[in-house]
């Protein structure tokens, strides 16, 4: 029975209090006095901490604060510096690359997307194009990134920045972070090449974006479909990553144990009913359609009965798999995100029917199944915003 | 973007350091100098903290410490006080009641079990018997409990101490903690009636016992079968309880979506294949056998083919449901606990086959499926040990 951790220290206290003050300012413009009142710190302590944050380019003054109604000189309002450290995000898709810059407030300052068939291209070629795009958005935004994060369509292992498996790209054991640095140098972005580079699964980042920007509760399950089907499980405000970093593989949860063979080697996995290829096949369309989500949405909206039936069948399978997830994890909400968000209109009725019939041993409310407003923008937003959130969470780090 | 929490304070630091020092002593006898070396605290600070812990009856001196090899007077070894605050656990089963006392070191000092048919008895009658048993073990142990925790076979809600649903007892919305206090007073245990009383689901407590006493990794999934099938999901050392406290309901994960009707209202739930009634039925035995786990184990050991087949079929269904859990949660280990532990010999081969065939998109090693040594003792141990662990985690609380 051992409790871990080091002794509390004055240095640790100051670092924690820097984060506390910055968190209050991030929640909305405030005077020093308001920050003091809300944190319980003394006015003098707040002033000293704010000076340090301002020197680090994190906090700026923005005219007079909201009048307090009290007599005396109104304090100036403190805000997050709009020209402070930024978040640089990249996204490797099967059929596209994208990059964006968000400022310290989480606002998008640049966003570029390029259609590229990355399937079966070498990692070197893909990373060279991504480096170029990252340099472009960074130059255009004119801010200084604090770090880079890249969303990838595959399993990311415990080893830093390594994609263990991305079958839809044909990648296995690719060291993305290590490969991106020289690519950035070759693209003339030497400044970016020295930054911390993080890699994460697109479904995880989509779920985190939903948590940070989508106004979701502290515990929810975010489903997304891009090349594969993934889930991000947010529990008590944190992403559940699993013992080896592979949590959230909803696509290979068994839906019908004797169902069709799955390329993964198992049978009857959710992807055999609700994945890109399965839905296209059920709808009578060829596989590898450009923008399969958009294509299915257009056809369903136009009244294509085969497409609507295929999506309803996918919704049934999603409902069965999600019943298992709800029983195991008890999320406050289940959010249909990524490509599924655009197909919600045709997936939801069947999903709702399954959940209503099957989730019976606990309370279940139809309203707890919702659709993401971020949709397919989620993973890239999550990548970039994660960088600035790390700065906000620990502004005292070197 | 708001960071929660109050400012760090001197008082909070002392409280954290009390826990840090006590944690080192709990991990094994140590001199004051060793505690100082391991925690990074000064020798003087350690002495002052130890004095406070000794005054609270938590720490005792136990002869000379292990010789350090250095010249000088050997320090005395500090140990957890064997007569310090104790943990008092209770268990309400469908066919039994039990209670135990563990000391601060987690060692069992008293353990009593009584066969009682609690099914459809009133909560008042059950709680009166439980109060009597709690008084008996507490008197016999002669220690002062710091609190009481009770394991119950049902869903425990977010409201403190309320069993929302225990279908196997015929209970719904029973305020166990509130009912136990007057029952303890009527049993003449006025001292116990004033203690904090916690209630938790038996599967959760069995999983926590496995975490604390079973030497498991920080993230694992513990399966148990008593009246129903439950799972405890331990993630990063903490029990995943879910947004409404209902996580771990493995028994109602769909195994075959068109399978037999379940009393819960759904179809093809795991309990229809691997629950008590399903296995007894498949084995050709009448329902409601006294000690169904022991009976099945005896018959299987004696070579009863029908029982062995029934257990293999249950193992197949468990393997399918656990595949879903492994894909979603990525535990480092899956532990067969509770009643399943005694049936492992006949459940495991089929479970292993399913997991080997179905868990393919991530690493899976046969050795990650293990059997609990605590078995059916887990929930009561977890209840009592949880009380003393709360004391150890925050010895500075009032």
From TrEMBL, chains A, B:
Protein name: ROK family transcriptional regulator
Source domain of life: Bacteria
Matching InterPro entries: ATPase_NBD, HTH_MarR-typ, ROK, WH-like_DNA-bd_sf, WH_DNA-bd_sf
Alphabetical list of Gene3D superfamilies matching this protein: 3.30.420.40, Winged helix-like DNA-binding domain superfamily/Winged helix DNA-binding domain
Occurrences of domain HTH marR-type (ranges): 20-60
Family matches, as Pfam families: MarR_2 (PF12802), ROK (PF00480)
UniProt similarity note: Belongs to the ROK (NagC/XylR) family.
Species per Swiss-Prot/TrEMBL record: Kitasatospora terrestris
PANTHER family recorded: BIFUNCTIONAL UDP-N-ACETYLGLUCOSAMINE 2-EPIMERASE_N-ACETYLMANNOSAMINE KINASE, ROK (REPRESSOR, ORF, KINASE) FAMILY
């Amino acid at each position: 029975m051992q409790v871990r951790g080091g002794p509390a220290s004055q240095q640790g206290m100051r670092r924690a209090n820097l984060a506390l003050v910055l968190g209050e300012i991030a929640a909305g413009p405030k005077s020093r006095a308001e920050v003091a009142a809300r944190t319980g710190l003394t006015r003098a302590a707040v002033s000293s901490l704010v000076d340090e944050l301002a020197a680090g380019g994190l906090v700026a003054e923005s005219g007079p604060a909201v009048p307090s109604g009290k007599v005396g000189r109104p304090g100036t309002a403190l805000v997050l510096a709009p020209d402070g450290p930024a978040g640089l995000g990249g996204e490797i898709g099967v059929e596209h690359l994208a990059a964006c810059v968000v400022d310290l407030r989480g606002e998008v300052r640049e966003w570029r997307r390029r259609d590229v068939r990355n399937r079966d291209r070498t990692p070197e070629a893909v990373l060279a194009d991504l480096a170029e795009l990252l340099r472009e958005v960074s130059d255009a935004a004119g801010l200084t990134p604090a770090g880079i994060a890249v969303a990838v369509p595959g399993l990311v292992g415990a080893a830093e920045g390594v994609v263990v498996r991305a079958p839809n790209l044909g990648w296995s054991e690719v060291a993305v972070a290590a490969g991106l640095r020289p690519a950035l140098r070759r693209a003339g972005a030497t400044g970016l090449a020295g930054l911390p580079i993080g890699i994460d699964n697109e479904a995880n980042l989509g779920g985190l974006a939903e948590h940070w920007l989508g106004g979701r509760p502290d515990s929810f399950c975010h489903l997304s479909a891009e090349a594969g089907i993934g889930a991000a499980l947010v529990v008590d405000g944190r992403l559940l990553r699993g013992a080896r970093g592979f949590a959230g593989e909803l696509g290979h949860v068994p839906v019908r144990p004797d169902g069709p063979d799955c390329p993964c080697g198992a049978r009857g996995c959710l992807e055999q009913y609700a994945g890109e290829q399965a839905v296209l096949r059920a709808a009578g369309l060829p596989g590898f359609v450009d923008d399969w989500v958009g294509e299915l949405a257009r056809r369903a909206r136009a009244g294509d009965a085969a497409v609507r039936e295929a999506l309803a069948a996918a919704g049934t399978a999603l409902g069965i798999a999600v019943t298992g997830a709800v029983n195991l994890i008890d999320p406050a909400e289940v959010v249909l995100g990524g490509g599924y968000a655009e197909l919600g209109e045709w997936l939801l009725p069947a999903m709702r029917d399954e959940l209503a019939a099957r989730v019976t041993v606990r309370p279940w409310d139809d309203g707890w199944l919702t659709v993401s407003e971020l949709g397919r923008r989620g993973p890239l937003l999550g990548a970039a915003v994660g960088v600035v959130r790390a700065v906000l969470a620990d502004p005292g780090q070197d």
